[in-house]
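Usage example:
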Amino acid sequence: MKNTLGLPIALAALILVFGLSSDYFFSRDTFVAIANDIPALLVLSVGMTYVLVIAGIDLSVGSVLALSGGLSAVAMLEWHWAVPAAVAIGLGCGVLCGFITGAVSVAWRVSSFIVSLGTLEIARGSAYLVTDSRTAYVGSAIGGLSNPLWLGISPAFLLAIAIVIVSQVILSRTVFGRYLIGIGTNEEAMRLAGVDPRPKKIAVFVLMGALAALAGLMQISRLEAADPNAGIGIELQVIAAVVIGGTSLMGGRGSVINTFFGVLIVAVLEAGLAQVGASDPAKRIITGCVIIAAVLLDVYRNRKQR
Amino acid sequence: MSLLRLSSLAKAYAAPVLTGIDLTLDAGEVLALTGENGAGKSTLSKIIAGLVAADAGEMQLDGKAYAPASRREAEAAGVRMVMQELGLIGTLSVAENLLLTELPAKAGFIERDELHRRAAEQLRRVGLTRLDPSIAVDQLGIGHQQMVEIARGLLGNSRVLILDEPTAMLTDQEIVHLFEQIAALKATGVAIVYISHRLDELRRIADRIAVLRDGKLVTVRPAQGFEHDDIVQAMVGREVAQHRDRERRAPGRETLRIEQFSRGAQVRNVDLRLHAGEIFGLAGLVGSGRTELLRLIFAADARDRGSLYLNGSNSPVELHSPVNAVAHGIGLLTEDRKSQGLFLTQPLRTNVTIANLARLNTAGWIRNADEAGVVQRWFERLRIRARDAEQHVAELSGGNQQKVLFARWLERDCSILLLDEPTRGVDVGARDDIYAELDRLAAAGKTLLMVSSDLRELMAMCDRIGVMSAGSLVSVFERGQWSEQALLDAAFAAHRGQHTGGDDDGNNKGNGTMHAA
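Running the assembly step on the lines above writes:
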């Protein structure tokens, strides 16, 4: 953990720049906007960090988010299921999607990139099917998850932070975490060391699916509606946040804590640009530049380490 | 006047790698450069070839200052280097690879006939007269790829040609071709720097031999009269313990028996019985099925046929995967450390403990203190040279990397250890440490099955030596019954009466090199 300071400094600099260029940046509204934005993105990014650590990728997270959320909403509204059962079926659906991606790519040794692209389409189609292509208004049935307790901080926010901490500890302190890093570094060496990489890889995709479903629930709780178009393109935002946090796309290297800072940087950038009145095109162009800059910085850090 | 003159060259990365190198090279001379791993041979040659800049000192080529800033500049001055790692593009043809930077073209379209004519001419210079230049490099055996790489190095008007371990992958036949080429180049006045570990080869080809140790030039002497043992002593700086004849170790109970092991044409009907406390050697040519046999026993590959028995039992054990094999106390030290053994970008610590975490955790949590203790113990016992347990293994020398893998399996306490070329790319000092460890393991009642292409090593270490030829185990020798000649004869057994030369059949699987002392 030699480079742990770089990201907080970058974040602080970003906050400072926005603070100086807008009178309203240091306001309750900005903070609330950021705090609202974060939980779903954070939960997805934690899962994606694990997936990248084992040298995989999961493009289906946005669709899985929409399908799981949609399924829970339909279960509540149309099937009149109790809330816990509806939540459970949403999470179960995420687990199933993750299992499909993981199991297919492991069993037939195909890249998770292409399998998850398939899952992306399947899950999105299913989301339209389940919701009949309409937004399902669930009201405040699970609104408690997103009701701010204090300063915009909601139970969802706290849950996401807890997931960050637990995931980081699992990655750095447990046998499972060590195996994941080993798989991402050299899967064949792992196999020949007598450790079967396959169940671990599937477990990571299952975890990713479950977290995508949780992110879906967080979104319907906040918006009080399940939109079958939710999460389109969010996988790219997630991957960007994780990579800004210094996790390698080549596998074997990653930190959930740094992903947390990556997510904060993405969220602050978004909120800050909105505050200073940047147009949507300008926002996208600037965000793109930040992503490239972060990756270049990462390459530079790697070279120095070698 | 000498063609190339180096004065007080020095280079340091974290620590000094080269200090005060003074060396001259004459036109039409072969200068051999040798030394242990990490002695500085590669760095020195890379400085000459313009890949690395020296920190201090200067070079003169033909009396004029020579300080190439890049490989391109060095090549423009007539200095070329053939690298140890293959720099070929597998999906392109041999001809395209050879002429990659000067593809003959008209209006952007490649002129195939001209390309193939020029490539064929180039291949003739290294004796590959029957190799089709239009074939993709991927389809060639590794030995032929190396020859293509060398042919590329011979392009243009080289005045100084640096060859880094050129024969590492070549068959004997190919080595002969290469040496003929070197002699021909020499006659035209090209100066050659020849880097190799293979001392007998050096004395065959070199005019002078330069020995590096710890970044310093220890000695430069005419090859004539520079005896094998003297070279080794200059490399190591001390006398290396000679592994003279020992007694055969008393074999214990049977630990592993395989019957009729087969996989395609690679391994055919191999029967083998191994015992506790013995070292069984496997000799044979490259491609004779030795590595494949180890992988079958370890269940890294699936076999077509055959059964395996453990600990003298009469009921076969079915191993489905390396996970099973390891659970039954079998370990495999792979031939290719980097791609099949090590986690290069991870610290030494995790590389040692990865197969042992089952014992180092409580409910899934790694016990850090215990892990550190394990690593420290092997660090000392195997004399691993590293900064600390957190250093990435990519930064270690070949010998130390191999010790890390030994530590992994020794900590796992396997009762049967399969070793594939355990001392390949390992320097002389570390080699002795590894031999000592093998002795200790045998004395502790472990079963060792060891593949090596170095007959001298097998004859020094093993109690029995089995020889494989074209996938079959053709004979097994007891200690005292073998001779180099007998072992070599057996290795060629399956090839006798056929065309065996490793020449231009485009594929050299099935024959290869074996190095006798």
